[in-house]
Amino acid sequence: MDDPLNWSADDQEQALRAIAPWYDLDFGPLTDDVEMLQGLAVAGQRVLELGAGSGRIAAPLAQMGCEVTAVDSSEAMLAVGEPRLKQAGVNVVSADMRCLHLGAEFDLLVIGLSTFQHLLRRQDQLATLGAARRHLDAGGRLLIDWTAPRPDDIDPSPPFMQLEWLRRSDSGEMVTKSAGQELAQNRTCGDALDRALSVAWITYQYDAVDEVGRLRRTLARFPLRVNLTVGEMAGLLAQSGLRPIDWFGSWDLAPAGDGDRLIVLAKAAS
Fold first, then answer.
1. What are the residues whose beta carbons fall under 8 Å from the beta carbon of 8, sequence distance 6 or more?
2. More confident residue, 159 or 198
3. Which of 44, 70, 192, 219 has the fewest CB atoms found within 10 Å of its own CB?
4. Is CATH 3.40.50.300 the classification given to domain 31-149+228-268?
5. Residue 176 and residue 159: Cα distance in Å, rounded?
């Protein structure tokens, strides 16, 4: 099996080019995390989102009166989001969040909806948190939202595709999405710590059927860091000069451990 630590920026962009046309249909109905962030943000604040994608989070924050900068390295995702982001008045920056230097500071910094899990190596995680720390204003807050550890994160069983939804696209096609997860094993790249961290291969399959029954199938496969615990994140934050303020387990801000998300709110360490 191929090693996910061989995954390159070009590989990632190829996967995102496949996903991008379906992203808003897939994740557009998700609004609970946006509402959470709208409750944490204040109109007039400067907000920076890393890994903003098509602007699903950035645009609503701008529409509520925040001054929003959205950063993403994927041309495909930014192209999908361009009309929404432009209309909302979001400042868009095409850049790698690991080495970001905007020369500006922000009141609220967001790494939303499992974006942090695309960072497979510890050096990339620390580089991203370092960039976040550089861009936090005095008293500024950082929010990171990722999937809580699940039993199948470390299950070596063969994968299977599971139907997630059936929806109608704007073009009238009936679209189904199926997804599967497979634990990456027998890894040889990276140092011993990188090889020890849990990574899974994620497969998305979108099947679109038009009005005359023609099928159009899109497949995307990419690696994702899984089984990321509170303890590990706390250690990464400490190494990056950041200190947790609170931990949550869901988008309605339930205590950590009471939901299927892990969310940390942090600030610069004194």
1. none
2. 198
3. 192
4. no
5. 19
pLDDT, tens digit, 9 for 90 and up, residues 134-156:
999 999 999 999 999 999 898 88
Q: What is the tens place of the pLDDT at every residue in 63-121? A: 999 999 999 999 999 999 999 999 999 999 999 999 999 999 999 999 999 999 999 99
Which region holds residue 62: left if phi is over 0, alpha if psi is between -120 and 50, else beta?
alpha
Looking at residue 251, the DSSP 8-state letter turns out to be: T
pTM score, whole prediction: 0.96
**Distance, CA of 117 to CA of 146 (rounded, Å):** 7
| pLDDT the model gives residue 2 | 84
The owner of tokens 């931990």 is: 247
The CA distance from 106 to 128, in Å, is: 15
* Spatial contact of 117 and 228, defined as CB atoms under 8 Å apart: yes
Question: Could you tell me how many residues make up the chain?
Answer: 270
Exposed (0-12), middle (13-18) or buried (19+): which is 128, by Cβ within 10 Å?
A: buried
What are the structural domain ranges in the chain? 31-149+228-268, 151-225
Across the beta sheet with 67-72, what order do the strands follow? 91-94, 67-72, 46-50, 106-111, 136-147, 261-268, 242-248
Which of left, alpha, beta for 68 (phi over 0: left; psi -120 to 50: alpha)? beta
Residue whose C-alpha is closest to residue 64's, from 48, 88, 83, 84: 88
pLDDT at 59: 98
Task: Tell me how far CA of residue 234 lies from CA of 145, 224, 241, 244, in angstroms.
Answer: 13, 19, 11, 7
pLDDT band for 51, please (50, 70, 90 cuts): very high
Q: What is the pLDDT of residue 159?
A: 83
**DSSP state letter for 89:** T
Q: Which amino acid is at 56?
A: R
Which tokens hold the place of 42? 């204040």
